[in-house]
Automatic annotation (TrEMBL):
It comes from Marinobacterium zhoushanense. Residues 24-274 form the EAL domain. The lineage of its organism: Bacteria, Pseudomonadati, Pseudomonadota, Gammaproteobacteria, Oceanospirillales. The chain holds residues 707 to 984 of 984 of the full protein. It comes from the Bacteria. This is PAS domain S-box-containing protein/diguanylate cyclase (GGDEF)-like protein.
Length: 278
């Protein structure tokens, strides 16, 4: 009887699982083609100094415009790129492209590039970063790599070595999505980040949730004490910005200033130095 149940259950699940796996495979194949055909693009979103309103730099964000399906979010295709290892090729291209673009901006502006834990573990990251810097001629201190807490959670010693080696090149290192991982504060002591990016989920309800308020206050205070730059992600309105200003947060990034935009628009904004189009 138990056997029968088992078989029934198996039959019930299998077709659905099969469809899911199939959909993923299709997406994977198409992503591979998109990578080869250079159908991937980068959008750039400005990061603004809260005290002065000046643009400090832009974050490069991957965009995939699929021929039939339209825009596919990085939240959807990056996990697939990571599982298949395709992220190594894509990540190398992102580094090259972002550095080449940033080289056209005024010399005080930097570019932020997201680095996947898979790239990080692949042992080619250091060489990829060096290659992108030398082929673009971008000074290393104008490149900021954005990593997540996950990198410090696994294989800590080897990863700390990689981080130190990257820093040795002169690039900046930012911790992205801060507050979403585990025992975040511990990691801040292990490696001295140049910047901490407060996750947008905390900014989203900073005016309505006392928990989020407490987190934002704590992180801003910590950054001030440790002399690390703090950046708030996902700033969408004036009130959020005002709260951040009062907490001494250094920079802000979000729809309130600008949505991620094509390279040409970013270049124009970078040259004019004005972040607010309002
Ligand atoms: P992230 O690095 O934390 O990037 C910030 C995300 O917040 C971006 O989503 C950006 O478009 C979005 N955002 C900016 N301002 C606002 C706002 O005011 N409100 C809201 N609700 N969202 C805002 P996006 O572009 O969809 O990227 C999602 C994630 O995909 C990124 O999160 C990053 O983890 C990953 N990603 C993007 N590009 C790359 C890449 O080149 N390489 C790797 N490894 N990951 C990437
Ligand atoms: Mg990021
Ligand atoms: Mg983030
Ligand atoms: Mg994120």
């Amino acid at each position: 009887r138990a056997k029968g149940e088992g078989r029934n259950r198996f039959c019930f699940f299998e077709p659905e699982m099969g469809a899911l796996v199939q959909a993923r495979r299709t997406l994977e194949m198409e992503l591979r083609k998109a990578t080869d055909a250079q159908d991937l693009q980068l959008a750039y979103q400005p990061q603004v100094d809260i005290a002065t309103g000046n643009i400090e730099g832009f974050e490069a964000l991957l965009r995939w415009q699929h021929k039939e399906r339209g825009f596919i979010s990085p939240e959807e295709f990056i996990p697939i790129a990571e599982e298949t290892g395709l992220i190594k090729t894509i990540g190398r291209w992102v580094l090259e492209q972002a550095c080449r673009e940033a080289r056209k901006w005024p010399a005080n502006l930097q570019v932020g590039v997201n680095v996947s834990p898979v790239q990080f573990r692949a042992n080619t990251l250091l060489a990829d970063v060096e290659a992108a810097l030398s082929s673009s001629g971008l000074p290393p201190e104008r490149l900021e790599l954005e990593i997540t807490e996950g990198i410090l959670m696994q294989d800590t010693v080897a990863n700390l070595d990689t981080l130190e080696a990257l820093r040795g090149l002169g690039v900046h290192i930012a911790m992205d999505d801060f507050g979403t991982g585990y025992s975040s504060l511990g990691y801040i002591r292990k490696f001295r980040f140049d910047r901490i990016k407060i996750d947008k989920s905390f900014i989203h309800d900073v005016l309505t949730s006392s928990d989020s308020q407490a987190v934002v206050q704590a992180v801003c205070g910590l950054c001030t004490t440790l002399e690390i730059q703090s950046v708030a992600e996902g700033v969408e309105d004036e009130q959020q910005l005002e709260f951040l200003r009062q907490e001494g947060c250094h920079q802000a990034q979000g729809y309130y200033f600008a949505r991620p935009m094509p390279a040409v628009a970013a270049l124009e904004m970078a040259t004019s130095g004005i972040a607010t189009t309002r």
